[in-house]
Amino acid sequence: QQHTGHHDSDAHYGTKYSNAACLFFRSRVGVDGCGNLPTRQQDGIIMQNLAFKNKMKKSQFSNEGRAKKAGFQPSQPKAVDPDGLELTQPVLSDFLQICHNLPSDEQRQINALSGMEVYDADATALNCANMSGLKWVLLDDIHPLAVGGYALLRRGVWQSFMLVPDQSWEDWGKEITQKVIEVQKEMVNQGHRIQTLCLSDRAKARAWYDRIGLKHEATLHKYGANGEDVEMYVLDQEG
Predict the structure, then answer these.
(1) Summary count for the chain: helices (H), strands (E)
(2) Domain range list for the chain
């Protein structure tokens, strides 16, 4: 199966982004002005300040190249699974590429849960990159297909998120699903509960949560910024 999505070359790394994104790069890696985004290896240093705070067990999430020291290591060879996809720690450009290609229903959910009136891809990418906790990206060669992460709300309790463009689902839906199942099995063993939120009217997303083993726990009425109902899904050590 070949990936034929939006990101068919490194040209996307040359996209111009907002002042906020440029300021982030300038403060982290000394990029002057609002020029082109750096390459993956150049912007690897961005994530040094966002390194994992918890040591991960050797697993699908923590591969051989990163088993002893968590964090992005651009000098190390990357482990690619037989299906051709790599699960690793993201850099800011991964979040930017994904957030600029999200479908409208995902954008609507981000607005509802963040309070943004108009979806801002750059702000969303920066918020995700700066999120405390554990973050991941799923790559086809060097092209990001999906990003996600787990914020530690309190000891043993993780809040998860995942952002995936439609093209990634079309080309790699089965593989993305399998990787997420592997990661969440590891994460629930790092605590005792994973929870995630979804707008009540996102039927496809809710069906997918059932497929990966999450349980519907509650409806949070009028929880969204515009009064949207939101569903809580969970995975715990007993589930």
Answers:
(1) 6, 7
(2) 10-183
